[in-house]
């Protein structure tokens, strides 16, 4: 088991208290991020045994800063239910960028690809780098599926 933190909108937290759990919801995802979220959900499907296809809950290994209209939840989760990745590289995926660099063997193929299909395939393959936790200095984040309220250890509410 591991300790993680997640930042949730107040209305999502209130709804979670009514139904007994919280999970991601497409209505809170900017339309420009949907493709990246769906890609992450596909990765969760392949890499997390107990994942059931919900939109992800984003978790962090340290307590994030608070913001108005959000609550911070400290949760205890089985580490095998959390897919860790690099926060900043995921921002590149949101922006549709490749993570190929000049040290990759696919670099020339990507750079000089004449076919958009080949370039897209190489770009998407490069996205797997966000899960390589042994490279450079990373800013780790995690994704998980549904979180039961019994997993919440502490709630940090914003003073109004």
Quick take:
The protein has 160 residues and is α+β, with helices and mostly antiparallel strands.
Topology (elements, then pairings):
Layout: E1 2-9, H1 10-19, E2 21-22, H2 34-47, E3 57-60, E4 70-77, E5 83-86, H3 87-94, H4 107-111, H5 116-126, E6 140-144, E7 147-148, E8 152-157
Antiparallel strand pairs: 1-4, 2-7, 3-6, 4-8, 5-6
Structure write-up:
- The protein is an alpha+beta fold and about 160 residues long.
- It contains five helices and eight strands, in the order βαβαβββαααβββ.
- It is about 30% helix and about 25% strand.
- A three-stranded antiparallel beta sheet has the order 1-4-8. Strands 3-6-5 form a three-stranded antiparallel beta sheet. It has a two-stranded antiparallel sheet with strand order 2-7.
- The longest helix is centred in the N-terminal third of the chain and has 14 residues, at about 35-45.
- It is elongated, with a radius of gyration of 17 Å.
- The protein starts with a strand and ends with a strand.
What are the key terms here?
160 residues, alpha+beta, three-stranded antiparallel sheet
Estimated radius of gyration:
17 Å
Low-confidence stretches are: none
Query: Which secondary-structure class do the elements indicate?
Result: alpha+beta
**Order of H and E elements:** EHEHEEEHHHEEE
Number of helices: 5
Mean pLDDT: 89
State the total count of DSSP E strands: 8
Shape summary? elongated
Strand content: 15-25%
């Amino acid at each position: 088991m591991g300790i993680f933190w997640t930042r949730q909108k107040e209305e999502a937290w209130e709804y979670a208290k009514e139904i007994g759990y919280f999970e991601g919801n497409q209505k809170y995802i900017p339309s420009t991020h949907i493709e990246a979220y769906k890609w992450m959900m596909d990765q969760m499907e392949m890499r997390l045994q107990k994942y059931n296809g919900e939109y992800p809950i984003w978790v962090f290994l340290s307590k994030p800063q608070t913001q108005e209209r959000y609550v911070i939840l400290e949760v205890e989760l089985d580490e095998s239910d959390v897919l860790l990745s690099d926060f900043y590289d995921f921002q590149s995926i949101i922006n549709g960028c490749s993570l190929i660099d000049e040290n990759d063997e696919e670099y020339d193929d990507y750079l000089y690809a004449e076919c958009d299909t080949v370039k897209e395939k190489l770009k998407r393959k490069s996205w797997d780098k966000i899960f390589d936790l042994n490279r450079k200095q990373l800013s780790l984040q995690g994704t998980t599926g549904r979180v039961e309220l019994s997993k919440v250890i502490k709630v940090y509410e914003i003073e109004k």
